Amino acid sequence: MLVLFETSAGYAIFKLLDEKKLQETKNLYADFESPEKAANVLKLTQFEKFEDTTQALAAATATVEGKISKPLKKLLKRLVDPDVQEKLLVADSTLGKAIKEKFSFDCICNSSVQDLMRVIRSQADSLLQIDEKELAAMRIGLAHSLSRYKLKFSPDKVDTMIVQAISLLDDLDKETNNYIMRCKEWYGWHFPELAKIIQDNIAFCKTVQRIGYRTTAVELDLSDILPSDVEAQVKEAAEISMGTEISEEDITNIRHLCAQVIEISDYRAQLFEYLKNRMMAVAPNLTVLVGELVGARLIAHAGSLLNLAKHPSSTVQILGAEKALFRAMKTKHDTPKYGLIYHASLVGQTSAKLKGKVSRMLAAKAALAIRVDALGED
């Protein structure tokens, strides 16, 4: 019975001297306590060393995909004996199937084999007769190369940034709305007319932060925050306001809240710019068709750009309206014509009668654009 053991240095083939050891896995750890004991259980018969890190990386990626790499193929060809049906213990069942199809080995992969691999790993340096430090260096080098390979070729990694950014953008919008509502209610006790005069929320917060007590509004210059006509209305309303008096501590806390709203608003603008750049880099065709926000929400809803590319245009069209779809199917009513794609500018500009047709047409083109972005090469 042979054992195929994969290392960062190369492929090793061991001869299992006592096959009964595989059935008595409880005693395996005791048999591998020292290099001397391990040598009584296993004997190294073949070792195919990797020439360099590039070959090691190619072999590792082939193993992950369940394929037989060139060094492994070369090693197994030397072991094949047409007269003997040899059993081969492997750690990966997918790789075992590939070896069984290509060669005449009877591959075994079960929990007992996994336990055996674990104890071999603990004594790998002595069994392979390689220095422990050298083996550790090879292991680290291969791990770094494999990580770089996975990051480079995984399409899911880049669009994770988009999913996180659009989720954070929505959270910031909710938080800002709550803070502004609280701010208007709080300051409304002192100067209730201000919220009716200034419609823009950020301008409102900047004005409150600047004037503090309403009595100081007449003396202050607000031209850098408000238009001249609105500034005049604010100063006029401040003189005849029906609001109550509040303490210095109240004004301080209201100003802190306004500063928080302004800070969040500035960060949101910065985050939106980042999202625009990310979308143009990851999914430029989708961005041109539906816009940055709708495109990002579609990607976030599907989980990744690659997952979104797997959806047909009919699914892209109603993505985000799943509850309405299942409710309509349950009650046997008309199904929804659009989901997140409704917020695309092209659908928004269309008359109500044609919105369904335009969303269907846009979804068809968007589905093609998504596939080009996800699977196309530069």
From TrEMBL:
It is found in: Nucleus, Nucleolus. It comes from the Eukaryota. Gene3D superfamilies: 1.10.287.4070, Nop domain. Its main location: nucleus. This is Nop domain-containing protein. Keywords: Nucleus, Ribosome biogenesis. It holds the Pfam family Nop. GO terms for molecular function: snoRNA binding. Belongs to the NOP5/NOP56 family. The lineage of its organism: Eukaryota, Metazoa, Spiralia, Gnathifera, Rotifera.
